[in-house]
Amino acid sequence: MGIPIGKLSLYTACGGISPAYTLPVVLDVGTNNQQLLNDPLYMGWRNPRITDDEYYEFVDEFIQAVKQRWPDVLLQFEDFAQKNAMPLLNRYRNEICSFNDDIQGTAAVTVGTLIAASRAAGGQLSEKKIVFLGAGSAGCGIARNDHRPDPARRIKRGSGAAESLLWSIALAC
Length: 173
What we know:
Layout: H1 2-15, H2 34-38, H3 52-69, E1 75-77, H4 82-92, E2 98-100, H5 101-121, E3 130-132, H6 137-145, H7 161-165, E4 166-168
Parallel strand pairs: 1-2, 3-4
Helix pairs in contact: 5-6
Cofactor: Mn(2+)
Keywords: Metal-binding, NAD, Oxidoreductase
GO molecular function, one term: NAD binding
């Protein structure tokens, strides 16, 4: 619960959102770590991790319950496995007000930093080559979004221009 509580504390401290309007939630879908399953102090759900259809059905049920209880909610996805992060974001983006902090939040902060660094170094972000080390949710989110910070300066994907400027060391994005 440390991460959700910490994020909500930032909303309160930096955004002025009353803690009464926030709710930290952790979805426990099991673990495949046998050492944890054997540990008598393990507080998680003592079952193998659910995957595929069962996983998405579980998340769907959660989303529907949240929508029913709080129809105007803002839902922040945090620390979902990369293989699930983008599919979940795409699945719910038109259904519930939501964002994935690893993909979109980190990308937004990184884009701002890259723009500022480009200006400080002299030149435009579109002229820079950018290398990402790793292909987790954050790195892939940055790679997908960093060349589109301003619609007026957008480089069209598929034009070859954006792809020639973005390099990922782990090509899994």
